[in-house]
Structures are given as structure tokens and as C-alpha cells.
């Protein structure tokens, strides 16, 4: 990431710049990184070509490999193409998502009020379920069936094979049955072990925390440079064709004309506010906008939210001994992305759910 953000002098002064780059060791560092990535991707592809490998479902490498041998396909990707796509995924997807999670945890540990509120939301939501009676799409007979299985699960009796098969069949469809299973499983694991994707839409405050993190810490401070095709006017300025356009989303997110107390981490600012990060509101553009906006937006927002929800659900977070929250650095490292310069050290403590219930 640091290398990607480094400007090669040879791009600015063609011949002499090459000498300067050689003296700083830039080509050698690029070559070293390239070799390491290349051998890693080579290993992944070889693993996927292994005929004995058991596959439960196809991943992106399997799909590309099958396309490369498909005579009917419009395009047959070569190994080099596959490596280039993997590089896009690693650079575009992995760094940006981990940077966002790190900034969110940094802001939360610096703001205990927000940390407490978001944890309370996640912990209070998980476990509230829709019952069969509330599900208007069920017939009377189905309600009865779901209720029967549910009460059998909550009882002490052993479950026979037919009942077990019926439960497996209906379990994914009815939260009530799932809940009963969880209640029964609590003897072993304490409470529901994790937050899954289906629960995210109910975690509204967590979503506000994510928006606020993107506002203050968009991983790409400057969007990928664009070039204008035709003449247009913006804010009274003439923009000629072939002008390079850089959009500073970092500055947009901290603009005092748009945001009150812009440097404060205050997720509630999104409470009665329709601004979202999906490219429709120019006040918040962590994924860009328009045709070239990030194609990974859905995957990224889901992965980041599920990871954060689980970190916050099962653990309480403490600072290492002797460290105060004011000591947590927000210094930024600058490369292709804006990352947290100093590592974030936190101590996870498994949350005691029984204590919460007693309170
Ligand atoms: C928090 C996570 C992420 C953020 C903040 C982010 C942000 C961005 C931004 C700002 C752009 C440039 C858009 C523009 O200039 O208008 C971009 C492009 C891109 N992103 Fe993401 N991204 C994230 C995750 C991902 C993931 C998970 C993937 C793929 C798995 C991905 C793949 C790409 C690709 C391939 C492009 C280039 C698109 C093009 O040029 O047409 N990104 N991303």
C-alpha cells in the first residue's frame, strides 16, 4: 500500500527521474513486492487445479479457471488475467475493509459512550425473534406445526429422528424454531454465539457508526483520478476536456459547511439524516460515485459490519495497562490508502452475558 502511494520520479522527469528512483531503491522494492504477490497467487491457482481437492462450492478462482477452458465463453482468461483480478481483489478489497474496521474500533475506544450504545444495541437485538403467530404468511396449520416443534425443543424430552428431520427442514425459515434451538443450546454456549448477515438491517446504530467512520476516515482520501471528456462548468469554473480531476472525499467528509463539529465522532448526526454512502449523496463518498464507483460496495459494507458486530457482541474491549483513551493515536499513514499509522492495541475480554441479564 505504501509503495502504491509512492510517486516515482521517473513519471515526472522521464530520464533523470529514473536515476533518482534507482538511487532510492524504488524499482528493487517494487520488484520484490511483485515477486511475493506473484508466487502467492501462483500457489492459490495451483491449489485450485489440484484434482483431488474436495470442493463444497466454487470460489472466484474456480469460476475463472472454468472460463479459461470454456470454448463457448466470449473470453478465456489466462493465468496472468486471473492473477491480475486477484491483485484487484486484494488491493481493492482487503486493505480498505481492514482499515475501516481498525478506524471504527479506534474511534469506539476513544468514545466510550458510543461504544456502550452500539454494544447495547447489538446485544439487545440478538435474541429478539419473530414468532410463528406474528408471521402473517403462515397458514393456521403451519403455525401449529412450528409451535409444536418449538415447544418440543424447549422441553426436556429427547427428540426422535422424525422430529429432528422436520426441525432441520423448517429451521432456516422460522425464527421461532431457530430461537428455541438457541435457547436449548444456551446450556452449552451461554447465548447465541455470533451475529450473522441477516441481522444487520436491524442494527441501525451500528450502521450510523459505520457511516461516521467512513466520513472521518475514508480509506481512499482521493478517489481514483478521472479525466474529463468534454467541456463543462462547475462552481463557476470552466473545466476543459482532458483535465485530470481529483476528488478529495476526505475534505468533503470534514467540510464545516456540511457537518457540524466535523472533527467529532458523533454517529447520531445520521439519525434524522438521509445521507448514505451509496454514491447518491455527494456529502459522503467513501466508495466514489457514478460508473466507476467501487463495485465491491455491497461485499465491503457487509463484511465490515458483520466483523464489527461480532467483535462488539462477544467481547468487551479494554486498553492495555496504563494507557488512557486520550493516548490512542489517530495519526494517519499515507499511501494509496489512509491507514492508522500506529497499530491499535486492545485487550478483548469475553463478555459476561449473565451479568448483563442480572443488571
Ligand atoms: C471499505 C471497503 C472499500 C472501500 C472504502 C472502497 C472504496 C473504493 C473507491 C473510493 C474506489 C474508486 C471509486 C471512484 O474513483 O469513484 C474503489 C474502486 C474499486 N474497488 Fe473498492 N472499496 C472497498 C472495498 C472493495 C472490495 C471488497 C472490492 C472487491 C472485492 C473492491 C474492488 C474495487 C475495484 C475493482 C475498484 C475499481 C473500479 C473501477 O475502476 O472501475 N473494493 N473502491
TrEMBL record:
SUPFAM superfamilies: Cytochrome P450. Keywords: Heme, Iron, Membrane, Metal-binding, Monooxygenase, Oxidoreductase, Transmembrane, Transmembrane helix. Heme binds at residue 294. GO terms for cellular component: membrane. InterPro entries: Cyt_P450 (IPR001128), Cyt_P450_CS (IPR017972), Cyt_P450_E_grp-I (IPR002401), Cyt_P450_sf (IPR036396), Cytochrome_P450_71 (IPR050193). One of its GO terms (molecular function) is heme binding. It is found in: Membrane. It is a single-pass membrane protein. Its cofactor is heme. Belongs to the cytochrome P450 family. This is Cytochrome P450.
Amino acid at each position: 500500500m505504501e509503495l502504491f502511494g509512492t510517486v516515482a520520479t521517473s513519471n515526472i522527469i522521464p530520464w533523470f527521474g529514473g536515476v533518482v528512483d534507482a538511487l532510492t531503491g524504488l524499482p528493487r522494492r517494487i520488484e520484490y513486492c511483485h515477486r511475493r504477490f506473484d508466487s502467492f497467487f501462483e500457489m492459490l491457482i495451483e491449489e485450485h487445479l489440484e484434482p483431488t481437492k474436495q470442493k463444497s462450492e466454487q470460489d472466484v478462482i474456480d469460476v475463472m479457471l472454468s472460463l479459461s477452458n470454456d470454448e463457448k465463453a466470449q473470453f478465456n482468461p489466462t493465468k496472468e488475467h486471473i492473477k491480475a483480478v486477484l491483485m484487484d481483489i486484494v488491493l481493492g478489497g482487503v486493505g480498505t475493509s481492514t482499515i475501516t474496521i481498525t478506524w471504527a474500533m479506534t474511534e469506539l475506544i476513544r468514545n466510550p459512550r458510543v461504544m456502550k450504545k452500539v454494544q447495547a444495541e447489538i446485544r439487545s437485538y440478538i435474541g429478539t425473534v419473530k414468532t410463528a403467530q406474528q408471521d402473517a404468511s403462515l397458514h393456521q396449520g403451519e403455525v401449529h406445526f412450528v409451535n409444536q416443534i418449538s415447544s418440543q425443543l424447549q422441553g426436556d424430552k429427547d427428540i426422535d429422528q422424525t422430529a429432528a428431520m422436520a426441525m432441520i427442514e423448517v429451521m432456516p425459515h422460522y425464527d421461532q424454531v431457530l430461537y428455541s434451538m438457541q435457547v436449548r443450546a444456551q446450556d452449552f454456549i451461554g447465548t447465541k454465539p455470533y451475529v450473522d448477515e441477516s441481522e444487520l438491517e436491524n442494527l441501525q446504530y451500528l450502521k450510523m457508526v459505520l457511516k461516521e467512520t467512513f466520513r472521518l476516515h475514508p480509506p481512499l482520501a482521493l478517489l481514483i483520478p478521472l479525466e474529463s471528456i468534454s467541456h463543462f462548468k462547475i462552481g463557476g469554473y470552466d473545466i476543459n476536456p482532458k483535465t485530470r480531476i481529483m476528488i478529495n472525499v476526505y475534505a468533503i467528509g470534514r467540510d464545516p459547511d456540511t457537518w457540524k463539529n466535523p472533527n467529532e465522532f458523533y454517529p447520531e448526526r445520521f439519525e434524522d439524516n438521509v445521507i448514505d454512502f451509496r454514491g447518491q449523496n455527494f456529502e459522503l463518498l467513501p466508495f466514489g460515485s457514478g460508473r466507476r464507483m467501487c463495485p465491491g460496495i455491497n461485499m465491503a459494507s457487509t463484511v465490515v459490519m458483520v466483523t464489527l458486530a461480532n467483535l462488539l457482541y462477544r467481547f468487551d474491549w479494554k486498553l492495555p495497562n496504563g494507557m488512557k483513551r486520550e493516548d490512542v493515536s489517530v495519526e494517519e499513514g499515507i499511501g494509496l490508502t489512509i491507514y492508522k499509522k500506529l497499530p491499535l492495541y486492545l485487550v478483548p475480554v469475553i463478555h459476561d452475558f449473565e451479568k448483563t441479564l442480572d443488571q
